[in-house]
Amino acid sequence: SQQGEEDPQALSIQEGENATMNCSYKTSINNLQWYRQNSGRGLVHLILIRSNEREKHSGRLRVTLDTSKKSSSLLITASRAADTASYFCARYNQGGKLIFGQGTELSVKP
Amino acid sequence: DAGVIQSPRHEVTEMGQEVTLRCKPISGHNSLFWYRQTMMRGLELLIYFNNNVPIDDSGMPEDRFSAKMPNASFSTLKIQPSEPRDSAVYFCASSPTRRAYNEQFFGPGTRLTVL
Question: Are A6 and A91 contacting, i.e. CB atoms less than 8 angstroms apart?
């Protein structure tokens, strides 16, 4: 069972457009992480945002965190066809387990 | 570093057979995790080890599943006997340490098909 909710479940955009994915969670967090999974591959860590941070950037990625709303968003700017993948948010629960959301499937059309 | 290594990458077996999945974590990482991914249930944590010791196996679905970590560089996940509902992609991941709530580094996965 998973304790994160992501939306949308699927997103299709044109190359060059921005993609925004959202993640909500239910309990307090130490940090929140975003991962990418290309089809048939393992997950790759993208970015980690700590609970005392509100925004973080990494290249074309921008992550925001609103602990009062228990939500986070991942923005990919100027998307490319190579960004096509599934994106997951994840957080550690009190038992020390990393819990993943169900993911957003992003398709970037050239 | 070669990253997390898993073998085999694909396994097709018949119901009732024993299946052993293998994982070599990144050198120096002292936490190791086994996950299962299916369309229906998403990504589920099965078990994790810290310094070769199993910390939480509450995600292991049944007694048919067992995992070992005999040393810091090797772990196995065994299913005996296997059933069709065990068909999934099994991932191994490692992390430098559990307490710091670090990122995890995933292997390429083993796609298991039980006929």
Answer: no
